[in-house]
Amino acid sequence: MSDGSNTGESAQGWEFSGEITIISPNGFHARPAAILVKTAKKFTSDIKLVKGDRRVNAKSLVAVMGFALEQGDSVALEASGADAAEAIKALIPIIAGDMENGAPSVAQTAKPAESAKVPAAKKETRTRNEADRSLFRGITASPGIATGIVKHITRGDIAVSERPAASPEEEAADFRRAVDEAKSELASIEKQTETAIDAGHAAIFGAHIEMLDDPELTGAALGMIATGKSAAFAWKSAYKAQAERFSGLSNELFAARAADLNDVGRRVLMILTGTQEEIAYTQNCVLVAEDLTPSDTATLDKRVLGFCTVKGGPTSHIAILARSLDLPALVGIDHAALGIKDGMAVILNADEGTLRINPDPAEVERVRGNQEEKSARRARDLEHTMEPAVTKDGVTLEVAANIGGTSDASQAASLGCDGVGLLRSEFLFLGRATAPSEDELADIYIKIAKTIGRDKPLVVRTMDIGGDKPIPYITQDAEENPFLGVRGLRLSLEHRDMFETQLRAILRASEYCGLHIMFPMVSTMEEFREASSIVRRVAGDMGVSDVKIGLMIEVPSAAILARHFAEEADFLSLGTNDLTQYTMAADRGNPKLSRIADGLNPAVLAMIKSAVDGARGKNCWVGVCGGIAGDPAAIPVLIGIGVDELSVSVPAIPQVKARVRELSKAECERIAAHVLSLGSASEARDYLGKNTGVKQLDKERQ
Prior knowledge:
alpha/beta, Glucose Oxidase, domain 1, eight-stranded mixed β-sheet, disordered C terminus, Enzyme I, Chain A, domain 2, Histidine-containing Protein, Chain: A, 16% strand
């Protein structure tokens, strides 16, 4: 199937793309659709998105989402106007790409064990346990456990009058003012979410704002107002009709967008009618509701410990936000849960997908005891987080941070990180229609460098684009398996101008930190040498001399060739997430393969050991920046193998440092040697569970 990269012109002045295939696992959902629409609005031409014999306005978010484009679907573009050719050229890569903006794919939205328990995620509710009437089951949206009391959230219908209170012109003006006010409120929530979570999740509300700019949605309301309907009646009719259309779609992800449209629609309707809704939260409450909106979830009171909803799914925006806020949450819970009385004691165990009412006091005390013990341990770890991570026999490990931006850098510094082991620079390239400039990139890199400080390393990974993270302004040929295609360093070497722009921006931060540049997805010595020569040339042109160059070990070939890489690189960093999936030939996002895609499989550990052994004695340090660096069960094995650095998620820094202090290098070497002799990940975890309290600590820390 063509990726639509060729356009043609008809005799009538229309420009056409070829067929464009949707490659995103989640289909063409709200956020990429919003980027398409926003980009289309920059052009004066009339632009249509075409699927079969249907054509919709490409400048209408609701219309574009109404196609419910799934992975494998094909569409085309047609445009007429002075800038039609430019419009087609700009829009093709947005449709052909996979713009997830950091949101989890369908396969990543629940823990593996939870996904296995709920194979039919499209089912709206789970069956209540008939043998235990005090237990309600749901689908895990966000893991965790909470004990509290029930607080119901209910919303009545907002009644509106069909007859206008003023002339059509005044009603239309009132409507436009309400839309503007709603957009202002959403912009505030967007900013709040960006500060509290990140820009990727804040983009949910950017898409909501785009809905209010939708010409078909607002046009339908204004059309009814012109016929003599009130603004409130017209708007309610328009957004409800579109929401019902989304609700009827077979694809769960697109059906979930009805919640977004209802959220936006109700906000405007409340402004039009002067309706006020204030939720009287109670201390330590667990919310139970038929549904929550994304804006509800993003602005939840701190007294809320978790929530359960009858509607929604694990791919909904409320699920995504709950995970980011670390709030236990269930969706698709049995409808009978709406009958639970306010104030009733409950245990929400989102790890197991259950809500228990009136729990035995002993069970509540046990859960609270475990939570208090975990909190006390975290408090103790936090108290000592500025201290170095030194084993009981005097071996120091660097504990660095994996970060995505300036807010992460500030938090990492406050938790005593020993530097940044991974700055995921691709987040600066995602979620936008054009490439960032050198100045834009340099501004971010310099701010992060100043935050981390001159005496600590800052490892900047060059853009890891491709595979699951294409960008719309780079046109790539369709690939049968993009994870084995042009991604990471391969893509950078194909797009030298963009690569060199990024390198110049990174090098401008060199005077503020111990700068390290790291290449992703390196598989051959030739790739590494070519990229290194570009860095040295650009650095020479800029007069920068003190920069370290290294690579990620993410594929088996790099692990096997580590001794050769170590002769020319300053450092190696093991990206164990990709290394695991490539070693085991198991997609780490596929819940059916979660037992296979385990970083503690001895085959993966052997790859890690190969890299460490290859670097030994060559003035090349080795770190681990993948998921197992923060796994309490894996830490003694990694120390025993001989890694020099563990780079972990920012909140995990105190716990990882504390875990290192509880171990001795000599004992870790013995543990690692035994684990490497085993034949499976389950054997490795069973063995680790019986040694030096790893199993207990694992439970407490996760």
